[in-house]
Fold this sequence. Notes:
The protein is mainly alpha-helical and 382 residues long. It has 3 domains: 15-138; 148-301, Intergrase catalytic core (hpI Integrase, Chain A, Orthogonal Bundle), CATH 1.10.443; 310-381, no CATH class. 48% of the residues lie in helices and 6% in strands. It contains 15 helices and 7 strands. It has helices spanning 18-37, 42-59, 69-81, 93-110, 121-124, 131-138, 148-156, 163-178, 182-185, 227-241, 278-290, 298-309, 316-325, 345-354, 369-381; strands at residues 2-4, 10-12, 193-194, 199-202, 216-218, 254-256, 264-269. The strands form 3 sheets. The protein has a 3-stranded antiparallel beta sheet. Helix 4 packs across helix 6 (131-138). The termini are far apart.
Amino acid sequence: MTKISEKNEPEKLTEDTSIPYRNEQAKRRFFEHLSGGEGFAGESVSTFAEAVGQWQQFSKNDDFVNFDRSKATEFVAWQKTRPTKAKGGKLALQTQYNYLRRIKRFFMWLAEQKDYKKIKKDDIDYLRLPRKEARMATAGTTRVMPTFEEVKRIIMSIHPKNEIDERDRAILSLALITGMRISAIATLKMKNFNRADKLFDQNPGDGVLTKNSKKILTTFFPIGWDEPERFFLDWYDHLVSKGAKPDSPIFPSTLKGFSGKNDYSKTLVSDESWASSSGARKIFEKRCKAAGVTYFNPHSFRHLIVNYMSKARLTEEEKKAISMNLGHENVGTTFGSYGYGNMTPIDAVHIVQKLTMTPTNGQSVIITPEEKAALEKLLKRL
């Protein structure tokens, strides 16, 4: 569209800069609602920001108020064909599904806002995959989990000759007997472990990186094998004997620059934390390879402990305690919802410490279909 000037020369109209401004305002209010109103962590808010960014790329930053049914269906089709660097040259169904559910939530929220009442909620429903594809997207993928014997082989293959060996064996052992996430393990400080009570205080206030910055009290799971607990305690005691301070890391990074260069020691650890959890993750890859075992990432150890504990004959109270020990807000995340009432974190720690794993004399442990289904669902999203 052009405008004729007084000199009869065509003049290009400037772009309406108010549209992207309004869009950015709406986005900002939505993200503030997610973080402040619903308590979403920054990481989670970022996933919504990415999804809304996909919509803006598709619509060429059209005004959000122009959303309608046809645009919704066009966006679903666009996701399937848009250029991507992903494997196979197109977005995975699971990625498409996640973008759509977040975009849908954004527009459902937007439709309630004063200046966006013209957006029809029936039209928003068209932001969806066909049922068959949605089922495929939510089915998840088979997660690789080590066997108990494989983890035992990895840990026992380490015959410590120096500090690095002792540290690596301790970090693998702790991952097994607590199911703790690697980001938390890598950021634990000496003061976060009470040796007398065998209690870990995963406290974000101390810099421990937990999921959604949640404070978690954790103790050792009883697995019928004592060495991993001893390996960890030996390492902790070693650090104490070296004069480690309360704010010193339990798992220090490898010493570097000890000879005046940016090289790493093959035997000594530093007194500093890792810059990120990637250093701790590499230990799992290194030790799996040395043991001649397929690489299992740190999170697979968490899957293993959940799977192992689910085979015990547990009371309702014990299931709740196990769930809390893993940092889950309710037992439904771990075993399915059974409604145990309130339990304090320290109650959970005491119950877990009293647990015993009894042999089944070769007999199969009976797990209800509901528990099996809940466990399978958990392992897909842990």
